[in-house]
Amino acid sequence: MNVRDLRKRVPYQIQRDVLDELSVDQVAEKSDFKISTKEKLRDAVRCTGPRFKSCFLSFVPLLTWLPRYPFRDNAIGDLISGISVGIMHLPQGMAYALLAAVPPVFGLYSSFYPILIYFIFGTSKHISVGTYAVMSVMIGSVTERLAPDSDFMIPGNDTNSTTLDIIGRDAERVKIAATVTFLSGIFQLLLGLVRFGFVVTYLSEPLVRAYTTAAAIHVIVSQLKYSFGISPQRYSGPLSLIYVSMNTNTHTVPNTLLRTILKRCIIVATVVSWQMDLKTEYGVEVVGQIPSGLQAPVAPAVSLLGSMVGDAFALAVVGYGIAISLGRIFALKYAYKVDSNQELIALGLSNAIGGLFNCFAISCSMSRSMVQVSTGGKSQVAGAISAVVILVILLKIGELFEELPKAVLAAIIYVNLHGMMKQFGDICSLWRTNKVDMVVWVMTMILTVLLNPDLGLAASIAFSILTVVFRTQLPKYSILGQVPGTDIYRPVEDYHQVKEIPGIMIFRSSATLYFANAEMYIDALYEKTGVDVAKLLSHKKKLEAKRLRKEKKAAKKANKEAKKRGEEPQFSETDDSGEEPELSHAEANGDVNKLSVKESKDVATVEVGPDPDSTLPQAIILDLSPVNFLDTVGVKTLRNIYKDYGEAGVQVYLCGCQSVVESMEKGDFFNEKVTKSILFSSVHDAVLYSQQGNKTLLNVKYLKMDLLKNFIVEGK
């Protein structure tokens, strides 16, 4: 016998009273204790010795894990992994510098300083931070927009000729890249200090994967000039990718010799370029000078900050989103925790300090991270060792790679983008699992390709949030029925054996109730219950007016007959205020057409008809368990539903609304007539209560006094 069959055969029985929300509060002794905002703030800023030590150690995680570093178990693996990743940093750093539109050597700087900072402040043991294709493309869009080639054209020797000032252009672009990197680091640092790590939740997995795929397309197009030796016209802004692609199609593709060595290793390509003097003989672009040593820090260009705020924030969000997503994957696999807020601080410091040393924005690389894990890396020490490898290259052997063709770096980029291009397969899998996510993927792809990475990210996030709003506006509305012999309720249209409770309608929406879908909630309620309260109340008013006219006519007739007999008039047409008589409880609940009047000399008795209106449910239960918040419009909607159906003679109960009771209290939902007695914790409690309440019979006696308006209501 399997576990599932065993569970099916275990019966249980619970006996308790039907409890409304008031009863639950009394039985459970609900606490009214609340911590004031002032006390919360005071506790947050209170500084004690243990708290200061804990905050300091969490801010500098190195001081926590390094003293307990298991040297014997991890040292060899971290050493081999660090050397392997460091070797990968060399070609990737120089290649991604081309994407950022800066000289290749600055990619090596970006593979050194930020890694050391992350080693001290980071919490992920397995990700390899450093240069990343998507971040480099975003940096390149900023540098080429603010420092286009056209701004650095100088007159040539001939009258109509101009020459590009490459040295001046590259210097300006390095300054722009470092400044936007510094600003993005400040954004990340501030977001981390205010505990804003949850901002990454707005970057869903389909959005991130589609965004990186679209960015890969930007990368491929940007590297065509290095791969095929062409010089297409540069464009910036929306649709620039389309313009560049169209312009590229008009060029021929020379340098056939170079294409035969694109897939060779770096060393071979460098030797071939050096021996055959490809730069001079064939005009092949090479890496160029790689100065030995490290550069001194330089202050960012403050004058440029205003023109790159949006770009810097986009870099901050995307870089953090990619790093934390990959970090959580490894943390889940190897059973440790990654602090999302501390990761923001670590990346922020890496970029801010790196910007001072002319680095461009960094994140983590999937390919390097996989190599780091597969070669035995078990801690941040592997990252520090990879930084040492880059330091050795910068100090001693960097000049050996000066003759490396840029086309080889472009080929390296293509290889690294191979995994990203495979993400097009997400479309088929998302079509089978979640079509809304598939739409988000496709739209993110299109928007990023057309609008460039910076504007594309903002538009993609906006579209993703809109899909959430649309889903709350188009929820599934259901009438629930009871699973026979249980206290379980399910949509009647989804199950064959689920039956509705006679006289009771149980209504549920799959989304929360707020201003954007409140009107649709009411329309769906009318449609599902088959009761249009507006039409019903209009019909009731007509019947009421007709009844009053008949009563007035009968009163006049009775007074005339009394006068003929010489008696005092027995009925008054209106009361002292000139208003019509008040309605009885039965009349106020829509049972006017069921009242029968028995006249006697002194008393007229009004009795409720034995058969209620069969077209109306006796009670409506609103299952609010999917509702996780209520705004003022939602509270007002529930209040109007209760009032309107009540006037139509239908009692309304609410269940599963424990999470929104406070909102209902603040929204003045309750008053002297409407209390928590109509709230229930479960649908079954509300059903039992409504069944018991509907057995009550009302006897209404209408007494003839001086005014035709006094009633005695007896309830049994």
Tags for this entry?
alpha/beta; single chain; 716 residues; disordered C terminus; two-stranded antiparallel ribbon
Structure, described:
This protein has 716 residues and is an alpha/beta fold. 54% of the residues lie in helices and 8% in strands. The chain contains 30 helices and 14 strands. The strands form 5 sheets. It has a 6-stranded mixed sheet, sandwiched between helices. Strand 13 and strand 14 (711-715) form a beta hairpin. Helix 10 (166-193) runs antiparallel to helix 18 (340-356). The longest helix has 39 residues, at 435-473. It is elongated and about 135 Å long. Keywords: Membrane, Transmembrane, Transmembrane helix. Residues 494-690 form the STAS domain.
How would you name the oligomeric state of the polypeptide chains in this document? single chain
Number of strands: 14
For the biggest β-sheet, the strand order reads: 6-5-7-10-11-12
Biggest sheet, in brief? 6 strands, mixed
The low-confidence runs, each spanning 5 or more residues with pLDDT under 50, are 250-264, 575-612, 694-716
Ordered list of secondary-structure elements with their pairings:
Blueprint (H helix, E strand, L loop, with lengths): L2 H6 L12 H7 L9 H9 L3 H11 L2 H4 L5 H29 L5 H6 L2 H9 L7 E2 L2 H14 L6 E3 L6 E3 L1 H28 L11 H18 L1 H5 L11 H9 L7 H4 L6 H11 L1 H4 L27 H26 L5 H17 L6 E2 L1 H9 L6 H17 L8 H11 L1 H4 L4 H8 L1 H39 L3 E6 L6 E3 L12 E6 L8 H12 L3 H32 L20 H4 L6 E5 L4 E5 L10 E5 L8 H16 L3 E5 L5 H6 L12 E2 L2 H11 L4 E5 L8 E5 L1
Parallel strand pairs: 7-10, 10-11, 11-12
Antiparallel strand pairs: 1-4, 2-3, 5-6, 5-7, 8-9, 13-14
